[in-house]
Amino acid sequence: MNADLKGRVALITGASRGLGKAMALALAERGASVALAARDLEKLTETAASVRATGAAAEVYKVDVTSEAEVLGLEKEVAARFGKVQILINNAGVNLRKPITDFTLDEWNWVIGTNLTSAFLLCRSFVPHMKGTGYGRIINMTSIMSHVSLPGRAAYSSSKTALLGLTRALAMELAPEGITVVGISPGPFATEMNTVLMQNPEVNAQFISKIPVGHWGKVEDIGSLAAFLCSSAASFITGTDIVIDGGWLAQ
C-alpha cells in the first residue's frame, strides 16, 4: 500500500458506483479512511466492502445531497465517526438528455440541484473541517461538457460549467488556508451514466470515432488522478480543471 494519505479522512459523494467507487478505492489504497455517501444503500455497501478489503476504514451514509437538512445531518454523522474530513470529492451527478423545450422545471432543478447545489451544500458543511489545519483537498467532478456541449445537454452543461466557476472561486477563497480546489473533467468513460450510449452500436461507434485514443476511458484512470491530487505532491495545483478525455477536446 502507498500510504501517502494515511491518517486522512475522505468524503466522496456518488460513491456507490462508477467514478465515485473508483476514487474511493484509489484513496483507500493510499491509506485514507473513506466516508461513502449516495442514495443507493445496497451499492454503497458493496463499495464499502471493496474499500475495507484494502485495509482501510469505510462507512456508508444514505443521503440525498440536494437536501440541506440531510447534508447537515451527514456532517454530524461523519464527524462523530471519523472526526475532521480533510478531503471532499463532489462526485454525485445526474444527466437528463432532452431538448430544452421538453424540460419541466422540476427536471431542470433536479439536474442543477444534484450537480451544482449539492457541491455548495457539502463545501459549506465540510470546509470548516479543513480550515486551520494547513491542508485540505476539494475535488469537483466537472465534465468536458463544462467546455463544449452536445444537443440535448442544456441542463447538464449548465450545471457543470457553473461547477467549474465554483471551483475557481473557492480555490481563490481557500488558498490562504492551504486548501486546494480542483475540477476533474472526464470525457467519455465507461460508467453506468453512459450505459445507454454504449449499448447502442451506432451511437457507441460515433462516440469512439471522436476519441483519439480509440476507446472509452477506464474508471481506474480517474481514481489514480484523484489520489494524486489529494497527495502532498499536488499542493501547488488549485483553481484549475484537469481534462481527462482521451484527447477529445484537442480536436
Can you walk me through this structure?
With 251 residues, this protein is of the alpha/beta class. The protein has a single domain, classed as NAD(P)-binding Rossmann-like Domain (Rossmann fold, 3-Layer(aba) Sandwich), CATH 3.40.50. It has helices spanning 18-29, 41-52, 68-82, 105-130, 154-174, 195-198, 201-209, 219-230; strands at residues 9-13, 33-38, 58-62, 87-90, 136-141, 179-186, 241-244. The protein has a seven-stranded parallel sheet, sandwiched between helices. The radius of gyration is 17 Å and the shape is globular. The relative contact order is 0.14. The mean pLDDT is 95.
Uncertain parts? none
**Helix/strand order, N-terminal first:** EHEHEHEHEHEHHHE
Which CATH-level-2 architecture? 3-Layer(aba) Sandwich
CATH superfamily: NAD(P)-binding Rossmann-like Domain
What count of structural domains?
1
Strand residues, percent: 15-25%
**Order of the strands making up the biggest sheet:** 3-2-1-4-5-6-7
What would the principal axes of the Cα set say about the shape?
Answer: globular
Instruction: Provide the structure class.
Output: alpha/beta
Helix content: 40-55%
Give the secondary structure arrangement, pairings included.
Blueprint: E1 9-13, H1 18-29, E2 33-38, H2 41-52, E3 58-62, H3 68-82, E4 87-90, H4 105-130, E5 136-141, H5 154-174, E6 179-186, H6 195-198, H7 201-209, H8 219-230, E7 241-244
Parallel strand pairs: 1-2, 1-4, 2-3, 4-5, 5-6, 6-7
Helix pairs in contact: 1-2, 1-8, 3-4, 4-5
